[in-house]
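Known limitations

Files may contain more than one protein. Parsers should not assume a single record per file. Below, a two-record file is shown to illustrate correct handling: read the sequence, read the token line, then continue until end of file.
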Amino acid sequence: MVRNALRNTAILALFASLMISPACRKKAYENPITKDTQQPDKVLFDTAVDDIEHGRYERARLTLQTMMNTYDTSEYLAKAKLAVADSWFREGGARGFAQAEAEYKDFILFYPQMEEAAEAQEKICKMQYQQMDKADRDPTHAMRAQDECRQLLTQFPNSKFAPEAQQLLRNVQEVLADEEYRVGAFYHTKGSYPASANRLQAMTDQFPLSSRADEALWLQADAYQKMGDNFENQQAAAYTKLVREYPLSTHIDDAKSRLKAMNRQIPEVDQAAYAHMKYELENRQKRGLIGKMWGPFSGKPDMHPAAKSGTPVMDSFHPTIPASVPVVATGTQGTSANPAAASGNGSDVNLTTVNNTNLIDTAPDARSGAAGATAPAAGTPAAGTPAGAAQPSSVKVGGVSTDVTPQTPAAGPNPNAPLPQNHTGKLKKLSPAQQLKQTQKQQEQFKKIQKKQAEQQKKAQEAAAKSDKKKKDGGDQQPPVTTPQPTAKQ
């Protein structure tokens, strides 16, 4: 009996191995040529298709390459190029997917009007989707899958593959949203509430179809509450969005009571959002027992909570600036150096193109000002001189004009002066004694400059007095200037 049982088990194992082996498994090819003809190129194509269906991918690619090189004007050239990409796609693996993606990209580039171009883009999306990891791992393939599915929906919106690509995009965005939620929840647990609120707000704005969007809004409002009364408006906005767009959330009653305690108006429920959330909760799938047991050991993400309806966001993910950062530091409000940024039209760097190159020689201010700039008129402050500052005066000494800067009143150290930096480029923290010593040093330097200006002004006045005295005596003539004549070389 035992011998018979072992023999039967061995026969069954052998039969199963033969059934699952690539040589015995045949999977029909998706894009065969249905035309019944015995043309040589058609015969080569059919042979390659038979090899692809039986898993002989290398042999199929050699046959297809022979066909394309021999019959370069064949009507089946596009089909052959697509079959090469399909052979790499069926072979799989990192190398196979990389080669298949390159071949599909070439096919879309050369044959964008064919129906198979949308299928090629859909397979590129699937390749990245199949290589996608969990939310707590490398998101490279998830982001690539998101870009490729968006490309399909943008380039081929009316294709039959568009609905499937839309669902793949919803699944991918569920993984990316889960990643952002995990980071935000981690910051919230560690007490870094500005970082937590910023992450969660970006997640709810970019991935509104996520299954954890309502939970993210609740944590976001709680983070703003713990940041203080200055962020009450952001807290109320999070509660308002939770009540209006996620009416079936488990936190809906608590959010309404918080809004009532803050004397804020409770918004009306969006009926479209209510119907969408009701449909999602009724059709949300759950993991089976085997799936729950195998889940911790699997590298693939769980797609059961992903949305089954709704239009996914087509914009790329844009990181936001935390609400705790001052408005001036974000660059969204104008400053003294950049007043136009308040309207969103300014920038910290202004660029002006000077078309006339002669202005470099004729207009001294052409390099620092706008095109066609001229020298400032008399009595006009020079560029870069603050309003109300003392302007230089001209004193004529011996027929030559000399600019003399009048003495300016003493002033304290510049509060806007840059702080000293260490060798790493970071600002040093000065002690009170060091700050006092630095202030005294700046005052001494200012006194030296002031003394030097006073001496220059005194010398100019003495020279002007001597010049006036010469004019009275009639000696205001300049001595003749003799020019030496060149002599011939001996």
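...continuing to the second record:
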Amino acid sequence: MRKTTLEALAANLVDKPISLEQCVVWARLRFEELFHNQIAQLIFNFPLDMATSSGAPFWSGPKRPPTPLQFSADDPLHLGFIIAAANLRAFNYGLKGSTDPALFKKAVEAAMVPEFVPKQGVKIATDPKEAEKAPAAPPPDEDEASDAIVATLPAPSSLAGYRMTPVDFEKDDDTNFHIDFIAAASNLRARNYKITEADHHRTKQIAGKIIPAIATTTSLVTGLVCLELLKLMQPAKPIESFKNGFVNLALPFVSFSEPIAAPKRKIGAKGAEWTLWDRYEVDEGRELTLKEFLAYFQERHKLEVTMISSGVSILYSFFTNQKKLKERMPMTMSQLVQEISKAEFKPTQNSLTFEICCNDEDDEDVEVPFVQYKFRGW
């Protein structure tokens, strides 16, 4: 146990990378070891024409003869393994990663990969019963080997403030290279043995153990949600027809209750009622300037807008400097958001949400719903 721990420390601290390019070289050497050298050693120990003691071919039936892979940076699967493995190692050491294929191809070409030389005298048991009967090899001197590893470790003082970050598996983040690495490694091993490869989504499904989850609580919750959605698709129903569900299959416990209606608020003494689900929908078929936006609420809803905000940015307020107000009045609402919030709109975005403060006809502050403003996509 001590030797194993020290070997792990040495592997991570003695040859620690200081750049992404060094991580790429490490990944390239791992590729060679896992998908070429190990397979080539296996074929060396058990040649393709080898026969069993009974004269039958050794590689037959369920025993598929593997094929060592020759690395090619032009093979998307090969390069995908390098990119994923290098980025994961870079994350461990706090180095900046990349997804630029050109960078990885250039670093891979510069890597010095030792030529494979078969190891002599390596014995691999092909029958579990034979392995049990075989005399056990004398245990190596662990203390001596451990002391040799300790001598190679850097002094603790040289690692002051040094930190490594473990990778916590997360299947749902497609930018963290976790599923990319699993997919590449498993498909490369499948290619060694000419087994059908799995795509990215199938790999995510298997690695995330989605199937067992669907068969338990997830399926029950999904079924209950679908029942409520069916009610929404039908003609209007009273709130008593809908249900909140509480489930704990470990007890087991299933309970239902009627949902509470959203509180209703009134816009002033004479205004309409609204709930948190309501919105002012402003869709005039064209862009409105700030001046037109203010006039729209004055004419349509008899409300004086005293403040307009988008997120954390105030676009308009009654106490704004008059010079600034004069500059902003002819600007469209989307231009205001871009100018003040420094926001960039997505190509598919066609609406903005504004929060407004208003006074009614009696000059009283009133609470009003959010504004859903359409600025393109007509």
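Parsers that stop after the first record will miss the second one. For reference, the second record is described as follows. The mean pLDDT is 88.
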